[in-house]
Design brief:
201 residues, Rossmann fold, 56% helix, 15% strand
Length: 201
Amino acid sequence: MSGLVIAISREFGSGGRQVGERLAQELGVAFYDKALIHLAVAKSGFDPVTFEKAEEEAASKFLFNLTIGSCVSAGGFPHVSVPISDQVFFAQTKAIEEIGARGGCVVIGRCSTYILRNVPGRLRVFVYGETKDRLRRIVEEYGVPAREAEAKMAKMDRARANYHQHYTDEAWGAAHSYDLSVNTSHTGVDGAVRVIRALCC
């Protein structure tokens, strides 16, 4: 499994992270999610708080519109500055590319399905689920109060879609952007792992 590269994108509450983590354990390969931030931080000089804030801002279409093409003036001549959110994305992209080049990994989120699309033998997976099952997981496993779960789910999905569509030429969740889509409402987490393993082993 040393050269295996699996990139996973997922709906909030679908169990996609659990699928990726369990898959990596069973295959004996590295697992990357938030660790990507730390890798990028080490190479870019940004502190983790800056990374977190930039990602939150990048998820908002309104803030995208404010930051894209922002100008600053130097010596009387305006020039285009690069928004912090874009600098963060570029740093993360570099880290993901290096991870993919080494192989033997499962990578979660952060446009990894797009960034690693040209890696030979890669498998790009989208994990999703039915609303009722996602809400149950958000409440029972993620600890979100029931009255807030639906709004939280919608907010997180919207943020992920905005982030993906801003930085790529793909629609988040669209079938043609992935090699496999798995509905955990039908498979469960264990079943999803078995399905993915069947394609890569």
